[in-house]
Amino acid sequence: MSSLGMRHPEEGQLLRYLDGELPGRRARQIRKHLEACWHCRAELEELESTAGDCVRYRKNVLGTCLPPPPDPWQDLSLGFDRIDASLGGESLAARLARVISLPRPAVPWAVTGAIAVAVVSTIVYQWRETPSVQAAALLKKAVAVADSRPRPARRIRIRTASVQLTRVVGAGQPASDAPAIERLFRSANYNWDDPLSARSFETWRDQLPAKRDEVAAIEDPQSPDRNSYRIQTTTDASELVSASLKLRMTDFEPLEGRFEFRSRDWVEMTELTDQPTLPASTVAGATGGMPRQPGMPPDRVEASAEPMNPAGVAEELQVVAALHQVGADLGDPVEIARESGQILVSGTGIPPQHQKQIHEALDSMPGVVVRFSEPGGVPSGPGAPPETPALRDSAGSAPPPFQARLEERLGGRPQYERFSSQLLDGSDAVMSRAYALRRLAQQFPPDVERQLSAEGRRQLRDLGREHVAALARQSGEMDAALSRILAALGGAPPGEVRLESAAWQPASEELLSAARRVETVLAVLLGMAPPDNPADHIPSQLLAALAQLRASQEHCQRLLSYDGR
Amino acid sequence: MSGQERNAAALRDEVGKLYEEARDDVYRYLLTLGLHPPRAQEAAQEVFLRLYTTLRKGEKLENPRAWVFRVAHNLGLKMRARQNSETPFDPQWGEQYAGQSGNPESELLERERMTRFHSAVEGLSEQQRRCLFLRMEGLRYPEIGSALGISASTVGEFLRRAMERLKKVRYE
Q1: pLDDT at B23 over 60
Q2: Domain residue spans in chain B?
Q3: DSSP H or E run through A344
Q4: Which DSSP string do the residues of A421-446 spell out, in sequence order?
Q5: What percent of chain A has pLDDT over 70?
Q6: Which of B49, B59, B74 sits opposite A76 (nearest CB)?
């Protein structure tokens, strides 16, 4: 497409271009378009000026109006010493287990998965330790997992001998919804603000001068992803004489807790899993169901705490399937949320043609509301002088290390351009499928999937398999285009890839992580991002990343094909 | 000195340098989350100790600065939740603002402009503001997405909407 013939970039593309966040081919198209289009150059200049405002705001407003630190900054040496001592004092088994654990990926959900996998490995070695060591190690790992991922507001059901209630934690709400229970926990110096968490349990346990621990692995043959560890700590040194916490094996999520007090009161807690993990912006209210009125405390009545009914999940699946039919799950910023018993599908800046398709797909579905909003337009300023704006060229001025060698091997510059464009298009397609699958996994985690009928589960997994199959086709083409040439550039054959996710939902996160790694290393190979490591390693790294992607997609496909029910 | 000790010394040096460079940025970011200054400072220091622990355990981080902000964000939210008996920290904006030019007239104009800009920032949604602040700290879209638990494309959309609103300040 010629630059003159190219239409204006869509909303948001200029900012992504300015921020160096566009794939190389698209960035090149926009750069060519900008050479010809004054209007877009003026838009870009405005964006640059606004970015400049942000820089001045950070420096002159945030930097001067926020109070300075109240104390001198600590020298961290003492902290480093403490850490070194604690690491040096760990059991040989723990250190061995750490050595065999997987390296930490770059994104939090993948971190969570990796830590969980590492922990499972660690348990094998630590199981021979005393229960106290087991309990401490499990809690430490569970805290690390929890700290490594965002923690949205969540609901827990609390039950005592006389009352049942539902409470929202993590939403910054005052913890005054159950004063009698709160008093019990406070008397035991147990964190009532977030009682069903590994950190609260660990903090309480650590302060006990004397305690006894028991750790048990609980297997659920009907549903292996509900296998869990139960830690029980008893003591005579606290008002809380016995506490137990059940942690899911796959991700160390706290599932249940039971707390017994000296006064013979007891409290049980269960995390409610009716709210799929969604970005905060997509959740209507902090409870994830009916929006809570401002100033009102969290729900107190049990009736409102029932898990999402199966019909609701099924309807949501139909919406997802309908969006999939029109390709709206592959990159459009479309969000799905529940509000007042309806399913709200919303999006901003969706192209009109796509809006029409989405309306056609969803308008006939009962209980589904489609809302689009347009971004507030800003009238363009007066025409900017026709001088070339200072564009950020992601390729930089230095020649990319592999470009010349690739050009030589491929037969010239035009062949190289075609080669890199095909790869970047392929990587884009892989990423959009990987994102779509991960999003599906977030909307239908294992406990929500179980609420679906057999037909619903089949439909959900068909959607997942379709994404993986499309991803496999694209990545296969990339593999074919790259394997030989990377080997010729000195790339070493990849090593063995280990994948241990037991369900397709966590596996989808591994798959996205692998796709992201391919995208990152590919950008370095093609000179669009600076290398983090010596450039010689790039061919080997890309071969390894492709192998990881291949293994991840095969693993995902296997898990999606096996329902296990 | 053993290889392990040399490694620890190098990591101390690496984390120490980043601590010097970024601790004030992390502290300010935590204040914008609503943490009170003592808590924010405590959290900022804790984040760098966690970074050291993580690196000592042999984990490889592609961008330690981005990692620091991600962990600071999560830790900040947890600490903010724990301080919920207190009013969230709300600084008195603008009173201490000092222009940089030395020219009273241009300083006044800049002050007015930054006041409007600040109002516009406060008018952003929480997610837009978080994306913007993390972008100001130099994080890339996927890194911001990792911190906030959203996709990079959603980060792009939040940032686009934020920039649209902030652009309007230039025409007010």
Answers
A1: yes
A2: 3-82, 104-171
A3: strand A342-348
A4: HHHHHHHHHHHHHHHHHHHHHHHS-H
A5: 71
A6: B49
Residue A2: predicted pLDDT: 40
Greatest alpha-carbon pair distance for chain B in Å reads 63
CA angle B8, A150, A63 (to 5 degrees): 75
Among the residues of A367-494, which ranges form H helices?
403-410, 413-443, 446-449, 454-488
CB B98 within 8 A of CB A174: no
Is pLDDT at B170 greater than 50 in this prediction?
yes
Per CB-CB distance under 8 Å, the chain A contacts of B82 are 191, 193-194
Residue A95 near chain B (CB below 8 Å): no
State the residue for tokens 């959607």: A463
A90 touches chain B (CB under 8 A): no
pTM to 2 decimals? 0.41
A537: burial class by Cβ within 10 Å (0-12, 13-18, 19+)?
middle
Domain B104-171: CATH class, spelled out: mainly alpha
Measure A102 CA to nearest chain B CA, in Å: 9
pLDDT, tens only, B37-89: 899 999 999 999 999 999 988 888 888 999 999 999 999 888 887 765 556 66
Looking at residue A266, its pLDDT comes to: 87
Domain B3-82 of CATH type 1.10.1740: yes
Q: Which residue from B minimizes the CA distance to A348?
A: B157
Nearest to B24 by CA among A55, A79, A73: A73
Above 90 in pLDDT, residue B134? yes
Per the rule left: phi > 0, alpha: psi between -120 and 50, beta: everything else, A264 is left
How far apart are alpha carbons A281 and A272 in whole angstroms? Answer: 20
Residues of chain B neighbouring A147 (CB-CB closer than 8 A): 50, 71, 74-75, 78
User: What is the identity of the amino acid at A378?
Assistant: V
- At residue A472's C-alpha, the angle toward residues A523 and A29, to 5°, is 40
Residues of chain A below pLDDT 70: 1-6, 88-131, 150-151, 171-177, 221-225, 273-311, 331-333, 338-341, 347-353, 373-401, 527-535, 563-565
What CA–CA distance (Å, rounded) separates A550 from A548? 5
Task: Give the per-residue pLDDT at B93.
Answer: 57
Interface contact A53-B170, CB threshold 8 A: yes
With CB atoms and an 8 Å threshold, state whether B78 touches A15.
Answer: no
Q: Which of A69, A174, A194 is closest, CB to CB, to B41? A: A69
Written as six digits, the tokens of A422 are 């095909």
| C-alpha closest to that of A430 among A377, A479, A392 | A479
pLDDT given for residue A481 in this prediction = 86
Do A314 and A452 contact (CB within 8 A), yes or no? yes
In a mutational test of the B interface, the residue from A18, A26, A66 whose CB has the highest number of chain B CBs within 10 Å is A66
Give the whole-angstrom CA distance, residue B46 versus residue B52: 10
Write down the pLDDT at residue A540: 87
Option in A53, A65, A194 nearest B117 (CB): A53
Non-local CB neighbours of A529 within 8 Å, separated by 6+ positions:
A394, A520, A523
Q: Both tokens of residue B164?
A: 């649209």
Query: Nearest CA of chain A to the CA of B104: how many Å?
Result: 16
